[in-house]
Records
---
Amino acid sequence: MSYRHVSGKVIAVMPAYNAAATLERTIRDIPEGAVDEVILVDDCSRDDTVEIARRLGLTVFTHEANMGYGGNQKTCYREALSRGADFVVMIHPDYQYDSRVIGAALEFLMLGICDVVLGSRIRTRREALAGGMPLWKYIANRLLTIFENVSLGQNLGDFHSGFRAYRRDVLERIPFESNTDDFAFDTQFLAQAVYFDFKLGDIPVPVRYFDEASSINFRRCVKYGLTTLWVMLQFWLQKLGLANFAIFQPREAETR
């Protein structure tokens, strides 16, 4: 199936760590013509991720030291902006998210309906669990997503998705360099998007849980959940003028 986007340069970015077993399948599912370039940033993988990415013709950047999930995304977005992206799609190369929906996400951005589009893994509880999402992770996701929707005044189905698409101006204005290098980067980014009045939306995306798909363990999930609560508190302290946080200070727009 092919897809021809309307206008503007589209770059897909992939924050990668030990994705050799799944990278090629992820790339093959991207509809023909949906993106102009795929950037893979490798965070010191111990497998053949870099070699496979280069064989597939991707634009590859490598970290000399492990920078973490958030640190990897920072490099992804810096490079996408420097290469003239008008739209940026972030998708994990672990084949957990279905790359075929990239075109649908881009349409919402190109029409100006949304500035940020997330892929929701949880259209229904049955589908999420049937896709292999552990029950405890499903419950944690639902509780945190409800709290975040109420805190930020949104109505998203899945605040913790690893499939995201952005308009260029979102990445130019949000000070993502101030964010953590850990997994809470994603939560901070969405809070920032709301704070700077960008329009958020989501689309359903099939998801797969299997041994090669990346996932954080229970201990790190607890830390992530607590950090999420802290980010929501920071958002409201900033909104009410009771405190100032670096993650909510706008940055200068990038030049092409």
---
Amino acid sequence: MAKGLLARKLGMTQVFNPDGTTAAVTVLEAGPCRVLGLRTPEKDGYAAARLVFGTAQRRRLTKPRAGEFRKAGIEPGLKVAEVRDFEAQVGQEITCAIFSEGELVDVAGTSKGKGFQGMVRRWGFGRGPETHGSMNVRKPGSIGATDAARVFKGLHMAGHMGAVRRTVQALRVLKVDPERNLLLVHGSVPGPRGGIVMVRGSVKQKAKK
């Protein structure tokens, strides 16, 4: 059975392993989440549970969304997301206790936005000559072929960098603290401090060593 949980990224720190070495971990405020509704194969074509995380001000809700919360009998939430094939009941509370230490998880979130960036930073392009009065240090140079006489689709150019959906797979859960709703996973996860991420059971069958 698939399982998942919405969480807030609190930041990174380090913990000591039993052998005395240190491990970099990301601290996540995982849940509690409430089940707003269910998707069914008969009605929607797939099975999923709609989870709600955090609290939201009622004046910021649209009338249809406020009606969903009222119908489910739960308080308005900050973030709503779906977890496929997750067996749950409407109104049920989901905590980080669904995960166990040593388990592998996939964490998905929106990466940090970097704004408009040139090709050197965005794609790692090399710089041009910096001597003899060169004016082409960080410029792209030629972007078209001589025979096609056009710019090919998908060419790496300057533009908006970051702020895209990213998933980091097979992160090991080092500690689960249901009392404080904390989840410590080995490594980094996408997004800034305070960002909302989705934590799911890893799709990789083989455990990472």
---
Amino acid sequence: MGRYVRDEVLNQPEDFVQYMMNDFLTKHGFSYVNFKGQMVFRAGGGWFEMPKFLVWSYQNGVFHMEAWTRILLLPGVYAGENALKGFYGALPKKMYKDDLEQLISLLHQPVGNVQLNIPQMNGMQGAQPNIPQMNGMQGAQPVPQGNGPIIVQGADTSRYANMALGFGIAGLVLSWSYVGIFFGVLAIIYANKGKTSMKKGRATAGMVCAIIGLVITCLFIILSILGVMWSL
């Protein structure tokens, strides 16, 4: 198996770990699915984005995580597990691994010996409860039982907002060609990921540029087809 496996000693309150995992999984677009007989968290996939997988558990103060992607055969066709290293798919794999490193760092943040009043989430078997969202690096203020509120730092998806804006502008500039479709779709994908960050305005701008670019590209395609038909 090509999995990135990590066991990290945290010794943090269980509810805090569950809260942080729910925040991370939600902001990065993961869904809890049955994949080949195993319940896993999955994000991405389709024609333009490499699918990402994650399973985790937390017992006796030790956080266990397994993460991987899949091998691309054709656009939208994947097979086998792909490790988070090597040249193939280097950029998306590096981004995924960087996200996981950020997660580990956030899980180590000091929160004190408290119990957070947050719905339970049962690790690898858990669902994703509806709990208050955390806004980028600012975080929310979960209220511990019997104590004052504490502030925790949540997952940051700002770089995806930046990427959405970059791809959206590229898609708009290249809207006269088929390449514009590729950049436009990527902009929409990353805009959806970056909309929960503090730079959600950039994600929105990228989304708007992408949509305008895709509309222009579709018009060019229609006009080209009509031109060919007219010439016949």
